[in-house]
Amino acid sequence: MPIYKYTAISKQGEYVKGEEAAKDEHELAQGLREKGYILTQALPPGKRKQGFQLSSVFSFLSGVSLQEKLMFMRNLKVMMGAGIALPRTLEVLSSQAQSRKLRVALQEIRKRVLQGQQLSETMKAYPAIFPDLFSNMIRAGEESGTLDVVLSQLTLQLEREHDLRSKIQGALIYPAVIITAMFGIGILMLILVVPSLAATFKELQVPLPATTRTIIGLAEFLTTFWYLAILLFVGVVAAFYQALRTKTGRNLLDTVLLKTPIVGPIIKKVNTAFFARTMSSLIGAGIPMVRSLEVTATVLSNIHFRKVLLEGAQEMRKGVKLSEVLGRYPALYPVVVVQMVEVGEETGQTSDLLAKLADFFEEEVSNITKNLASIIEPVLMLFIGAAVGFFAVSMLQPMYSMLGSF
Predict the structure, then answer these.
(1) pLDDT band at 315, cuts 50/70/90?
(2) Which CATH class is domain 3-163?
């Protein structure tokens, strides 16, 4: 039986920490409840110590990471399921929040809840932290009286999304490290090695080919105008970032990525998995199909997938089935997705079928990311070999020309 590391709160409001064996978090919460404690946070076995994670970088940049949102939702589900009042729950969770942005938001949400507002309404004021998916599902739970069920569905949604993103980020760390190291070594060669060779060529008055002159010119620029090189790099990154914020730039990037080998199929499977999982959660919470499509469109990362769902929402208002709209875009949504949606529309089991579809595509992404390193490694080796070969030939060619003249 696994051992969980937990944080709990007593009836007197005191925090306690410890470890306890339990089959799952539900059994852990039940056991602690019998002892007079309310579980507020549980760390699953095997996740006590974590090394570097790309998600931690994204957490720093965006303010509230997906992992922290997941922990918030888990704790909210457990504490409300234990019968703790919502204001008290929000007070406890705000005190535990690591992100200042989330802590301030929860404190403000608690104030509004005490004033009589619903939780879903207060969350709408913080779309950067709680997107439409949160507010819509929670509102459906509040209206139907099944908030505990909705919180469980939302927690499952975030768990699957976090797991999927973690696998993708983990698979990208290896090529990112290799490419960064290659560029770093290349810059060091240009700064430390090339100037010495350039001085030797100048003394010997060796005729230089165009490639050698290009490398020497780049090395002189980096050593003499290094501050301009830094400003140029920052400017290019800033311009690229600004371009991505425009509709044209984002559309161009998403189009290129979809047509890129290796990357394109992964993007299609990831967006399909997010579509199926999010739609399943929203429909299961009782949210109308049209609104579910609009909310799901905000979750998907690729603009082309979003356009299809927004078109589907408009067409469904006219009486067109979603399966018919998805069938118009076989390059984005595979035939199996269209068929499953069609069967769901005929049987009224769209939510269950989409959940199974999400499981399938999440497993597909998992299998791809496991083998991604072995797929990318040959491409990286070819790229690195070409770069090293170009540099070596460019710098050795004048030497061979000089030896041949004797």
Answers:
(1) very high
(2) mainly alpha
